[in-house]
Structure formats: structure tokens, C-alpha cells
Amino acid sequence: MNTQASRRRALAGLAAAVLPATLSLSPARAFAQAWPSRPIRLVVPTPPGSSVDVAARLIAEGLRGKLGGATVLVENKPGAGGTIAAADVARSAPDGHSLFVGFNGPLATAEHVFPRLPYKPLESFAPIIATVSQPHVLVVNAAHPARTLREFVAGVKAAPGKANYASVGNASASHLTMELFKSAAGLFIVHIPYNGGPAATQGLIAGDVDALFTAYVNVQGPVSAGRLRVLALAEKKRSPRLPEVPTFAEQGVPQVDAPLWNAIVAPAGTPAEIVGKLNAAIDAVLAEPAVREKLAGGGMDVIGGRPELLAEMMRTESAKWLPVVRRLGIKPD
């Protein structure tokens, strides 16, 4: 009897020790299993019709089917280089119902440019997935005498201070990439910031500026019409979309490697199970042939992959651009 009583007391003690831990895990598991319990927001930092917006809406449409008919809404919040939308999501509840559809700027370089940024890209977000990339090119007006990158460099060096370039805004990717190019090639080119891509492209077409770094999709029409000329691709390898365009590395400036990518993140602290479900669902959407075809029509190529891939991309981009921003003392407008 004494032995049986001792065993009962031991089992009771073990149950008492294990039960609180079990109970502490149950709410989190139940929470993840019940997700989504309300509409999911995809917060986009650009206006409707932009390439980021187009990709987000295709993903939102596909997610509804992958998540059992869940409501997925696209919410556009442009401004401040994407940091307004990013801050909105960073301060949202980490419950998988608010996601940020970002790009290089707000997810990698903004913290080096904005001294009072209300979030930290590498700390405030849980990476979910890298979604798409776009060819990043240097273009000039078709009337420009340079037909190659080497000719462009030689022309600028022959008349220092006379050349200028457009950007889609101060501290934007088009601004930072040109400054990286200038530093690598030893060029003096005057910066003329425009308010967005369309205005910068029109300035180049009109001949008001000499060059522009931009996503190829933004200038595909004028290039096809013979009004603009592509000189180089700012990536490590040639793009299947532009097989005839050589990279900067091929033309003697390997330092200019500035791919453009989009990604989706959640607020830091979002349960890993929800992050995993979102990653699998979005990756499945991006794998659908119809989605790939529509993205390709908009000048975008699918990336996809695990959250760890995006986390590494964000770390690498942040480290690459920090010295560029510091050396140039680039500040927001």
C-alpha cells in the first residue's frame, strides 16, 4: 500500500509539473490553428497600378483560394519611400493579419537614410517570402551619343560636371545606384531628383537629363519605340528578359550590382506556424503558371523560397548600402 501510495503521489506531482507548461502552449497553438480569424491586409507602399501593387493583387487573389476562402485585402499607403506603409505594419499586432509588401528601400536601406525611422527593418519584421524581381537598368535618351557603357563613361569624363541624371526621388534605388556607379567609375554627374518614376522617365525622354537608373518595366515602352536606349544591367548575371543587355561587370564596373526585389514580411513576433503557412501559401501562388505569366507580362520574375532566403537578402542589402549612404551623406528630402 505504501508503495502504491508513493507511486500515486509521484504521478500526481509529475502531472502538476507538466500541466502548466501544456496549458501555456495550448493558446498559441489554438491561435495559430484559428488563423485567419479576420481579413488579412496586404499593405502596399506604392499607388495602385504600380508593379509592386500589381504583384500584390495577384498574390492576394491567389491567397484567397490557398487559405480556404479567407478575405485578403490590398491597402495602398504610398509615401516617404515606402516607410509609411512599413511603419504601419511594424506597429500592427503580430497575429498574421497585417503584412507589408515591401522592396529594397523600406526593407534594407531606409534605416541608413532616415535618422528617425520608427522601425528597424532587420528587427521589426518577420520575413515571410521574397516574391519577385525586376531587371534594373541604366538608360539614356536615344539621341545620346553613347551606345555603350564605356562610351558613356568616356563622355562624362571628357566633360566633367556637364552631365546630369534623373532619379525617382532622393535616397531612392535609382539615386543610390547611380551614386554607387559614380563612385566606382570616378564620375562627376549632377543629380536631379524627380517626384516618381513617370516624371523621371518623361524628363529623360524630353532630353532634360542624360541618364536614369530604373526598373526596365518602367521604360519598356519608350525603349521598344526607339526613344530610349539601355546601356547596362545592374545585376550579376544577364536577364533572360534582356539577353542582349550586358551587365556592368561585363563592361568593367563589377561594383554595380543592385537587383530590385519585392518581398512580404509580417510584424516581428508573428507565430512561426503562421509565418510557415503564409510562406507555403504564397510560394504556391507564385508557382502557378498563370500567375507567372501575368507577372512576366508586367516585367517581373518570380523569386519565392523559404523565409531564411529573404532574411539573408535583407541583411546583405543593408550591409551593402550602409557605407554608400554614409560616404555620400545622403539624407531624405
UniProtKB/TrEMBL annotation:
Please report which protein family the annotation says this sequence is part of: Belongs to the UPF0065 (bug) family.
Residues spanning the signal sequence: 1-32
Protein source organism: Zeimonas arvi
Q: Which UniProt keywords apply?
A: Signal
- Name the CDD domains for this protein: PBP2_Bug27 (cd13578)
Concerning Gene3D superfamilies, the annotation shows: Bordetella uptake gene, domain 1, Periplasmic binding protein-like II
Question: Per its UniProt entry, which superkingdom is the organism in?
Answer: Bacteria
What's the protein here called?
Tripartite tricarboxylate transporter substrate binding protein
Q: Cross-referenced Pfam families, in alphabetical order?
A: TctC (PF03401)
InterPro entries (alphabetical): BUG, Bug_dom1, TAT_signal
